Amino acid sequence: MRIHVTVKSTSRKRNYITGKEIIVSDNNRTMKDLLCDLACQLHDAYISKSIDADIVAALTEEELSDGQESGKVGFGRRYGEGVVSREKAIETMLLAFEDGLFRVFLNNEEVVDINEAINVKDGDNLILVRFVMLAGSCFSYVF
Q: CB–CB of 34/127 below 8 Å?
């Protein structure tokens, strides 16, 4: 089935929030199942993204200015040789959800329990909001 996932863009010239349609399996009964499905898709997309090291791409003016605004100017190369296994990608996604590093909204309703039963239908909207800790923030520590 096809669902719409909302993705944040780092560029100021483009929309901050853009929709992307992905295909998920029909047997997502809980939020954990859906997150595992998403982790597998993201892992496969990362593995399939390969850039020829012998060819150097030229960046356009727009790509340069977008990269400068977000602080990430680059050619999209991956310098790390290690590839994480699917199982590790799933484990990391589930741990990040349980640790509260991102929130999930399914059709504008927050899903807080990883074992919560969900009813994903064709055309549903999924929003993932990732939290980023900034330098200089005040965090309370309990010792």
A: no
